[in-house]
Specification:
It is built from 24 helices and 2 strands. By secondary structure, the protein is an all-alpha fold. Strands 1-2 form a two-stranded antiparallel ribbon. Strand 1 (about 395) and strand 2 (about 400) form a beta hairpin.
Length: about 500
């Protein structure tokens, strides 16, 4: 392990992260009466100075990163990022005034929720908070959406060597060795170009649909990041606009799709092969399965609301489709309180978040491709009962899945269930009821946000110990469990 180089990199990344506080500082200075100037100035200074202090003693050390170094850097940086990202929330006078008993764990919870694109919140009275703080909160989600490590690989030349180790450690999905371009730096840049283009397009669409410029920009951050934070307590329901909800649905789905498909689309468009730019989406089996699941759950939800919830068909269709897409993609926007719907629907929608988005997307959950592989393996076992001597391959599209990938999927699923149970039992031990504990772990581990029971609206009223546990759960979900848990194994630290 190259600890000196690791600390040097963490220091540089922390200095780079301090720049995320500057836009909010500018907004605070621009809006009269905002009052958060010193909050962001102090937070910026502490973050930059801490990063500089880590970097300076080891600035002359240069080593090629290994895979284990990548895991350590990713986990350390996400943890450190959450700690320093909490400073503006902790120093904010309006937050401590409006949210009684405001503490550092609340600030840390909000910071990690933003950076991991979970969208769970402990903050109330969003409509009266300073715009600078609201912008920072939304920007955290956008910054965490594609992954700060990918951004760092793209912009810091000193990470050019060994950058693939960081990329593999941070990128979600069961298959992490495939590269979209020959060089990892170029890959990271291309992904961020696509991410930025989707954000700009989404912001313009929101603006044309009736949002003001501030709301359009900030909501585009959380939509494309699949985060779910809003600048209003009523979330997107504040706008009561079918056009805005339709735009959100489109971009939530686009952000939940594997970004390699968007990459190929951009490349084929540059080659003026417009037909191929769309057909390759439908050729992707994970994408087809994802849309099929969304369609099936939407039909069930709309039909149930129409028949049993005293809603006309238009309201059932509008609210049902939006909530299905929002929850299933692990975004967490709301136009209705789905926890108050028939219990079967609330459970169905929440369970859909366990699948989440596609691999290589900004979505949370176990990822669509893993669920698809598990179903295919189950079907293969049924076929083997009928034909015990047959050699049956599990395939995605026309390509057989290597046994190592299939084993990794089952390993991930097993550890996921075990972690889920342990954390739920831990929350029950803090005094939460069963529904609240189950949904809180599911909402944070899947980076969804809203839960059921006492966390249906926000997480502000749960106890401090539960918040610490859920902070760890959000990190586990963002780093797909193994990336974090591997650091707790003795084998990892042996030479």
């Amino acid at each position: 392990m190259h600890f000196r180089v690791t600390l040097k990199i963490i220091g540089m990344l922390l200095m780079a992260f301090s720049a995320t506080m500057l836009p909010s500082l500018i907004i605070a200075l621009s809006f009269q009466g905002d009052g958060a100037e010193w909050t962001f100035a102090l937070s910026f200074f502490i973050t930059f100075a801490s990063g500089f202090s880590l970097w300076l003693p080891f600035s002359k050390h240069n080593k090629v990163l290994r895979t284990r170094d990548g895991f350590v850097i990713v986990v350390m940086f996400w943890s450190v990022l959450g700690l320093f990202g909490a400073l503006p929330f902790y120093f904010s006078q309006p937050l401590s005034t409006l949210n009684l008993n405001w503490s550092y764990v609340d600030a840390l919870f909000e910071s990690l929720s933003g950076l991991t694109t979970t969208g769970a919140t402990v903050i109330t009275h969003l409509d009266v908070l300073p715009k600078s703080l609201l912008f920072y909160r939304q920007f955290l989600q956008w910054f965490g959406g594609m992954g700060i490590i990918v951004l760092a690989v793209a912009i810091l030349p000193m990470l050019g060597i060994g950058g693939m180790q960081l990329y593999r450690a941070e990128t979600p999905g069961p298959v992490k060795d495939s590269k979209l371009t020959p060089r990892i730096t170029e890959t990271a840049k291309q992904l961020w170009y696509i991410y930025f283009a989707l954000t700009v397009t989404c912001a313009l669409a929101y603006w044309f649909a009736g949002m003001n410029a501030f709301d359009a920009i900030t909501h585009s951050f959380s939509t494309v990041a699949i985060g779910g934070f809003s600048t209003h307590d009523a979330s997107l329901g504040y706008f009561d606009s079918a056009a805005i909800e339709t735009i959100a649905i489109i971009f939530m789905i686009l952000a939940a799709v594997n970004f390699s498909l968007h990459f190929h689309t951009a490349r084929t468009i540059r080659q003026k092969n417009y037909k191929a730019s769309l057909l390759h989406y439908w050729k992707d089996e994970e994408f087809r399965f994802f849309l099929s699941v969304l369609g099936l759950i939407s039909v069930i939800t709309v039909g149930t609301l129409w028949l049993t919830n005293n809603m006309d068909f238009n309201d059932s269709f509008r609210q049902g489709i939006f909530e299905v897409v929002s929850i299933a993609t692990t975004t967490g926007f709301a136009t209705a309180d789905f926890a108050q719907w028939p219990p079967m629907l609330a459970f169905l929608l929440f369970s859909a978040a366990f699948m989440g988005g596609c691999a290589g997307s900004t979505g949370g959950g176990m990822k669509v491709v893993r669920v698809l592989i598990i179903l295919k393996q189950g079907l293969r076992e049924v076929k083997r009962l009928i034909h015990p001597n047959a050699i049956i391959h599990v395939k995605l599209g026309s390509s057989p899945i290597p046994d190592r990938v299939a084993e990794a999927v089952w390993g991930f699923f097993s550890v996921y269930i075990l972690v889920f149970l342990i954390m739920m039992i831990a929350l029950l031990g803090t005094g939460l009821d069963q529904v609240t504990a189950w949904s809180a772990v599911g909402a944070t581990l899947n980076n969804l946000g809203p839960g059921l029971g006492d966390v249906a609206v926000n997480y502000g009223d749960i106890n401090t110990t539960a918040k610490w546990i859920l902070c760890f759960s959000m990190l586990l979900g963002r780093l797909e469990i193994f990336t974090l848990l591997v650091l707790f194994t003795p084998m990892f630290w042996r030479d």
